[in-house]
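About this split. The held-out portion is used to measure sequence recovery: a designer receives only the structure tokens and must propose an amino acid at every position. Recovery is the fraction of positions where the proposal matches the reference. Here is one held-out target exactly as it appears in the evaluation file.
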């Protein structure tokens, strides 16, 4: 399985190699959306395993507070490049996205060979974190997170 993941990572191409970039600075901590009209909300939590590996957990909750979906997430640095791995129940293997843009307030991860999403963009804002999940052509959705406890 690790070999398959590594082949996928190597096939992504143009990842950011900027040694100054550290995507974990923007993501560290616990994040939660507001409850939407259907009573659904999302949470993401990121914590350090070591300097090159971070663990994330994305969860979706329904109106009764019951968890309805879960994503196991990882940020990992290999050979100076950062990668975002997402393991969801409907995919046999984690989906790998390469960090292709990194600024003080924006992280863009791309995987042009994946069906959906092809792009994940994290925008750090003074009042929270906006995440765009898209097909890289304008179709998709976004989530607006605030630090947990700051709802």
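Reference sequence for scoring:
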């Amino acid at each position: 399985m690790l070999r398959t993941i590594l082949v996928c990572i190597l096939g992504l191409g143009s990842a950011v190699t900027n040694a100054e970039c550290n995507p974990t600075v923007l993501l560290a901590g616990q994040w939660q959306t507001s409850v939407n009209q259907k009573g659904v909300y999302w949470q993401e939590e990121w914590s350090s395993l070591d300097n090159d590996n971070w663990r994330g957990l994305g969860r979706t909750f329904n109106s009764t507070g019951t968890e309805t979906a879960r994503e196991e997430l990882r940020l990992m640095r290999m050979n100076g490049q950062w990668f975002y791995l997402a393991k969801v129940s409907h995919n046999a293997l984690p989906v790998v996205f390469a960090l292709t843009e990194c600024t003080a307030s924006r992280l863009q991860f791309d995987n042009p060979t994946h069906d959906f999403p092809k792009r994940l963009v994290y925008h750090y804002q003074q009042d929270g974190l906006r995440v765009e999940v898209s097909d890289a052509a304008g179709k998709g959705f976004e989530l607006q997170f605030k630090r947990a406890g700051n709802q």
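Annotator remark: Strands lie at 29-33, 41-50, 53-61, 67-78, 81-88, 95-102, 106-110, 119-125, 128-134, 140-147.
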